[in-house]
């Protein structure tokens, strides 16, 4: 396993721990989905599974759909960013079909960059969840008016 993988997986696990401590169910679900896909992809790579790129693409599409559903339901900006970054990762798998040469390593490089951005988003998610919880507790931000007192990312007018 590449040292960059180990570093990012460690960062994801640290972020997962912080989200489990400070986040709500939506934050936990997004982070668990991210860590699960990263762990399964790493396991498939270690086992030298044939058709690894196809399995990785399927997992990334499923992760994008999960992030999208969570972003629609949760109202967290960091999950919206995760969904956007994951969409870029999914579209990157189409690059070899549009180029004269195979761009498999370009896809891998893009996915590593997306994974790094996803890892940063998890830590932004910890920050956002902490402040959403604080805003709801203090009754600021209109949280008690339109969101039944629960924590959320920002004020809205319902």
- Count of β-strands: 0
| Sheet/helix structural class | mainly alpha
How would you sum up the global shape?
elongated
Distance between the first and last residues' Cα: 49 Å
- Unreliable spans: 142-146
Q: Output the helix-strand order.
A: HHHHHHH
Percent of residues in helical segments?
Answer: over 70%
Rg over C-alpha atoms, rounded to the nearest angstrom: 17 Å
Average pLDDT figure: 81
Number of helices: 7
Residues in β-strands, percent: under 5%
Largest sheet: none
Structural summary, described in words:
By secondary structure, this protein is mainly alpha-helical. About 3% of the residues have low confidence.
Features:
158 residues, mainly alpha
Produce the secondary structure layout.
Elements: H1 3-22, H2 25-46, H3 52-74, H4 77-92, H5 95-98, H6 104-138, H7 143-146
Helix pairs in contact: 1-2, 1-6, 2-3, 3-4, 4-6
Brief overview:
This protein has 7 helices and no strands. The chain starts with a helix and ends in a 12-residue tail after the last helix.
